[in-house]
Amino acid sequence: MLLSDNWRIQQYEVGEKPPLTIADADLDDRFWISASVPGDVHSTLIERKLIDHPYYGHNDINSRWVEQKEWWYRTRFQMDSAPTKQERWELIFEGLDTHATVYVNGLEIGTASNMHRTYVYDVSRVIRQGKNTIAVRFDPLYLHHRDKALMQWSSYTKERPWIRKAAMNYGWDWGPRIVTVGIWGKVKLERHVQAKWEGVYAYTKQCDNQQADIKIELEAKKYRGCGHLTYHARLLDENQQVVAQADGELLSSKVGFDLQVSQPQLWWTHDLGKPYLYQLETVLFADGVEIDRKEQRIGIRTVELVLEDEQGQPAFAFHINGVKLFAKGSNWIPVDNLIGAAPDSRYKHLIMLGVEANMNMLRIWAGGIYEKDVFYDLCDELGLLVWQDFAFANALFPDYNADFVENVRQEAICNIQRLRNHASLALWCGNNEIDWLYDMKSSSGEITTPFYGETIYHEMLPELLEQLDPARQYWPSSPYGGNDANDPNHGDRHNWQVWHGSVYPRKFGEVPLLDYSVEGVTFKNYKNDFTLFSSEFGMHASATKYTLKRHIPADQFYWGSVEMAYRNKDTNHQKGILLMEGFTGVPQDLDEYIQFSMLTQAEGLKYGIEHYRRNKARTSGSLIWQHSDSWPGTSWSLIDYELLPKASYYYARKFYDPLLLSLNHEPGELLELWVINDHLSSFSGLVILEVYDMQGQSIHRMELHAEVEANGVVKLGEWDEKQVLQDLPPEQAVLKLSAPAWNCLDNVYYLRDAKDVQLRSSSIHALYNEETQQLFVQAKDAVARMVQILIPQGNVRMSDNYFDLLPGEQRTIDIRQADGQVLEYQHITVSALNAEEVSATLTR
């Protein structure tokens, strides 16, 4: 029974009324506030227009009072009959945020102290026939940390290490402090008789195209008076045909066995094959009568993190079904600051955007949550691997406290068991940046205490995983490995030289240095990074104009305003200015800021990721920081809060394409032409490099025959810059790579920084066909740099945007509104860096 209806909430001062008075089954709560479950208090108050939306202007500060109150939830449900002695009724909360006490029919049945856990309460003896009442009291969090020792280090706030909730609720460098409270997960009432499934675990021991061996481990929980237990397990393919099955007895609470599958369909990431899913059904019987059933989808595949290559050299590469993968993806933060109220559709939109950008991996960052089931289900279906951090980010944690450690232990058990059957789950990781930053901060003298929390990541978590998920690998931290926790020669790496100005190389024990200069933060430093795996890196860009305008008061909607600054939660806003100063020049108004920051982010990520991919023999992955936004701010995201992709997202579709044509070049140096192939088949054909001037005249054309092996990379040649340009000044050159016979995207390059390229004035012609929902864009007079299509509407999808056009070249763009709303096509405008904005002409 899903208990999602008729919930109400009310606030009280701490201690204002005795808890049993408010929890009383007969309390008159008619005048309480109607609420949605799952959800949260903030979202309820917004929906009822009791607070202004905290994402507009500075309104988040006006709602800080919410976290100081005691909040109560209440609901009622009906029971058709009274429970019998043979029945076990369990009340299940899949998400309580955070310190809560639960009452049923006025009786306290238990407490909760962890947002990241599912809580199960036996209510068999307190529910009754007819009307039943549930009440949940949420304490303000200060009651649970005010008497605790403060950690020397806890980024953004000293409060959170003792509180097991999403760290980003307290504010991060890309989002505001909004400390949520409420029932953020589903609430269910379940009935069991004699016994129930406590755990079903399935993993692939080995597989190839001929046979797969699947290990199944079952665990049952028996109740008093339990009869003779037996089980039936079967595996069904997509056509609901049984491909393997087994029957047996549960003489104890646990049993394990193998299923053999002949000619299995393997689960692959979507770029390498089909993410094929089977259905595993396990049925529990007592004395021959069915008493419980579990149905779940599983994939037959192996995923291995390889730490040493065939030559015995250090590596950090994921191998799926024996195939070495170049991981292409991004870091995932919660989809909204108001996590509980975020709809499943938002997950589907954001994950589909990842697939459409050719990503094959998402990293669940430690400062958010262990994501909702919908996230993993979609990754299973769509073929994306998941790197899963445990929820420990950028702080010391009190592993010296037995109660805290036990709370964390139960959190880990809960989430390991919940997630371990997902085909998409590739890796467990202990924390985000804690090992690395502890060393830096202790080396600088900022931390003088022991490494509190270390036993969690290096002892408890690997021990639990060995028991509960032995088929999946564990990595203690990110970044981690070698003589420096951020060593390019061992493990994974976070490159925060770019943007944050961290000075590399640095060894353990050395005082960290920062270089806040154009040279110190520039994305050109990516080419100095020969990491084995780049798991975090990126740079800021503005949100789209539509998103900013929707959330900033009109009188503050200008570059340099207080409200614009408030959208940026990073420390030292000068870093973004320095990046733009070195590449585009410093913006002078809001439109220039949006354009310059987007172009810098897009070209910077292209510069770095093409470098990583050209070095795929050594480097095996790039995960951009970050995928999307949890509120409408300026950040490192590829997709802004209104689900509108930035320029960098459209660039990602190209630089993450499995077949990539790439130029490696610096001013005055040799120009190299590369082909990178992540497909499992080889390619042979013609690759064309053509040089144009700014009027679109072809200056030089080179045709090269290319042979690139499966999952390989090849350098086709290198040439002197002057030889390629044929005396055309490099500031006036546009280079285009193409491979007409391949299913491969063209790639366009400028040989100098954007501020030095001598663009000429261009003009845009735009025509929108209402029937086909296609926009036809053409450039005239000169090359149009970064053509930008704008529609004042959220969640608009385009087949391309922020692209370059040669004069006379036409691009056809498919456009739709992903929520199914009517597209506001009558407001389409098109512009470029060097072309005035025009409205699209409508036609049928």
From TrEMBL:
Keywords: Glycoprotein, Glycosidase, Hydrolase, Secreted. It is an enzyme of class 3 (hydrolase). Its EC number is 3.2.1.25. Pfam families: Glyco_hydro_2, Glyco_hydro_2_N2, Ig_mannosidase, Mannosidase_ig. Its main location: secreted. Pathway: Glycan metabolism; N-glycan degradation. The keyword Glycoprotein applies. Residues 769-817 form the Beta-mannosidase Ig-fold domain. It is found in: Secreted. Residues 200-301 form the Glycoside hydrolase family 2 immunoglobulin-like beta-sandwich domain. One of its GO terms (molecular function) is beta-mannosidase activity. Residues 25-184 form the Beta-mannosidase-like galactose-binding domain. It comes from the Bacteria. Gene3D superfamilies: Galactose-binding domain-like, Glycosidases, Immunoglobulins. It catalyses: Hydrolysis of terminal, non-reducing beta-D-mannose residues in beta-D-mannosides. The keyword Secreted applies. Residues 671-756 form the Mannosidase Ig/CBM-like domain. Belongs to the glycosyl hydrolase 2 family. Beta-mannosidase B subfamily. Homodimer. PANTHER family: BETA-MANNOSIDASE. This is Beta-mannosidase B.
